[in-house]
Amino acid sequence: MTKMTLGSHPQLLGFEQLERLLERTAKSAEGYPPYNIERTAEDAYRITLAVAGFSEADLSITVEDRQLVIRGRQSAEAEGRVYLHRGIAARQFQRSFVLADGVEVGEALMENGLLHVDLTVARPESVVQNIQIKRG
What digits encode the pLDDT tens for the residues 8-64? Predict the structure, then answer.
């Protein structure tokens, strides 16, 4: 018996990319930095990342091939600092979120060590297309 995959199901045409997308997303499930995703309105979401110790200059937000990519890299530390205990993470990170068609990235706001990124969903108008049948 062969395993039925999403991309090989006979009634799901053109969804091969979705299966690859799910595999890629599962691989990027790293736990740093922690984040929340909340629905803020019917067609709006907010992603919040805990980025304590990062400044706005240490962070970059890009949209690459329908993926929201948030990167953090702290600038070099001042010379001469001696830590007795270092419990605040200072490592670089990259966190990716796959965006569906119609999802647009709005503004980003830094507040109390949290980075908020707002997203909106544009609802497409319903389109009905009639296909003419030709005689062969």
Answer: 666 777 767 767 766 666 655 568 899 999 999 999 999 999 998 899 999 999 998
Cβ atoms within 10 Å, residue 59: 18
Q: Phi and psi dihedrals of 32, rounded to 5? A: -125, 135
The matching CATH number, chosen from 2.60.40.1120, 1.10.1740.10, 1.10.10.10, 2.60.40.790, for 31-76+87-123 is 2.60.40.790
Phi, psi of 3, rounded to the nearest 5 degrees: -80, 130
Nearest CA among 27, 1, 38 for reference residue 114: 38
What gap in Å lies between CA 58 and CA 110, rounded to an integer? Answer: 12
CA atoms within 13 A on the CB side of 99: 25
Token duo for residue 107:
């503004």
Contacts of residue 34, Cβ cutoff 8 Å, sequence gap at least 6: 49, 50
